[in-house]
Amino acid sequence: MDYYAENKKAKFDYEILETFEAGLVLTGSEVKSVRKGSANLKGGFVNFHNDSVLLSNVHIPKYKFAGNEENYDPERSRKLLLKVKEISYLRGKMLEKGLTIVPLSLYNKSRHIKLAIGLAKGKKKYDKRESIKKRDTERETRRTLKGDL
Hints:
Blueprint: E1 3-6, H1 8-13, E2 14-24, H2 28-36, E3 45-49, E4 52-56, E5 78-81, H3 84-95, E6 99-109, E7 112-122, H4 125-148
Antiparallel strand pairs: 1-6, 2-5, 2-7, 3-4, 4-5, 6-7
């Protein structure tokens, strides 16, 4: 399994409650661009339009060697492929106060490009400080253990 893009900012800004795997509807040149590793998930979010789930504000640039694609929008909304039960569950959770759906990582599963999305709750400023402190202490303990060996 190859990871093409990760949203590290989402894991810092949000507390991830649940994760889901979704398929992604892409054009051919977008697939090549993603496989090259040039997708950016930072700032992306998931919203609902009628009965479909859309991924918005994710930047997938035009593939360098693609032909002349007129009016290509790198931040267009892309449709996500989920089961009907998952869609209704996520729609209900979105109506709860303080919950949102964010993209976590873009990877391949056999030939298909998949997107890991997470049901998330926003962190407060003090929660972020706490996670920074925890990360720093873990780093220090790893350094000391590595130095002792």
